[in-house]
Amino acid sequence: MSKSVVPVNIADKLSQFSELWSQKKVAVLNDYEVKLAKLKGEFVWHTHEDTDELFLVISGRLTIQLRDADVVLEPGELYVVPRGVEHCPVADEETAILLLEPAGTINTGDAGGPMTKAAEILN
Q1: 10-121 has which fold?
Q2: pLDDT at 3
Q3: For residue 118, with 0-12 CB atoms within 10 Å meaning exposed, 13-18 middle and 19 or more buried, which class applies?
Q4: pLDDT tens across 61-89, in order?
Q5: Alpha helices of 7-117 — where are they, by DSSP H?
Q6: What b/e string do you get for 13-40 counting C-beta neighbours within 10 Å, with b at 16 or more?
Q7: Which one-letter DSSP state was computed for residue 60?
Q8: Where do the domains of the chain lie?
Q9: d(Cα 4, Cα 71) in Å, to the nearest integer?
Q10: What's the pTM value of the predicted model, to 2 decimals?
């Protein structure tokens, strides 16, 4: 199987979509997916019982609400939400993020609901 020799240009990928809270898969790393998303507003409180979730802010500002504290991320900062920890991402301004999580991870975790969306492949 031939591997791609073309790097992923994050700015180019982000320019290809405008939907908010819609994850776009841009690469695969072993059994993990590298995804981009644009956020604005508040997501849903949810938990991923079986996996940690890495958030890396590319632009904007992201607050990850936890039940006992908030984590505020600026561009270039990342935070790993440990498995089983309830959290709720909030972005007061449009924010671009990179996510790293196991393939097939549901974006709303155990919460489900109308914001549940499968990650789309972005070519």
Answers
A1: Jelly Rolls (2.60.120)
A2: 66
A3: exposed
A4: 999 999 999 999 999 999 999 999 999 99
A5: 10-14
A6: bbeeeeeebbbbbbbeeeebbbbbbbbe
A7: S
A8: 10-121
A9: 36
A10: 0.91
